[in-house]
Fold:
Amino acid sequence: MPIHRRFIDSDVLTEARQRIRYVMASFDSWCVAFSGGKDSIVVLHLVRQAMDAAGLQDQPLEVVFRDEELISDVVVNTVRFYFDQPERYALRWYAVPLMSEKFILGRKYEYVQWDPARPHVRDKPAWAITEPTGRVFDQYSMDDFATRDMAGRVAVFNGTRASESLTRRFSCLNKLDDNYINATEVGRVKMVKPIYDWEEVDVFRFIHDEDIPYCPIYDAQLWNGEALRVSTPLHAETAKNLGRLRTLDPAFYDRILSVFPEMEVQDRYWNDIDRNVVFAQYGVSWRAMISWIKDNIPDPALRALAAKRVQTCRSIRRNNLRKGVSKDTYGGYPLLYVFKQIIGGNYKRVILPLRAAKVSKEMRRWEDD
Structure:
């Protein structure tokens, strides 16, 4: 069944509050997944307000914070602000070994946050919940671990917004009913996205109207010309602009390089990489992309994911051309464009099609060749 968008006589704040009330009445337990960022701050306050309105003023709101080690002091201080209000927020601060990735000159490598085998970027908080057995978590096992003591069916509220990526958008559009409630790998746990249809301006409007303190990193990012987000600085999207961290938070930058000195190569040379050398060596074709992936992505899971993205782009392009999409746009997926996305490490999420106005002469040249 095709999905059609239509407007309703309501607003995103009213709808978010209705969703939260419905979930609170439908689940046995609930908590907020908190990052210290603007979106999760909004969700934290919305759920707290809903509990107060329901007569649960004396019940602290369960909050889960997954400390990713590579976060700046201003973010830590924001989380600590809520941690220090135990009568309102029962915040569980987890600092456990967790699989993550770093991006260096087009390649992704795995590393472990809070790895006991290396120095840490910052001291582990004394109050943090740890895992003394040496177990290394991934995203899915972490969800189970963080909610293991919560009874019955568990709802985890988070600040995911659909406008941030096509993958997040489709995760909220693939259901006709309760599309903001999504399944997880843990059957009893559901992810709830009450503000999935909010835009960034809605987030800051709510923060302003409710006079909520927010993480000051956003003010610095605005003046620094960066996207307004709280995230670790080593994954592909942020590592490409790692040099900006030197002006945003030089002390944090120095601590990262003291533990991960290999990231200096990424900072110094990413903008100087001559991708045309790669294209000249491999050519620009679907087969060439797969060859580059085999030669340059050492991790088997990431290698398989990158190859899957190439095949998906190829299929969508072929279907679009069959449907009569202009050949000049190459179905939204010119070969050179897709190859650049793969080299740039942008395959963790679905690769978006390129708008016709963005198809350059260089892209057409490679297609003509």
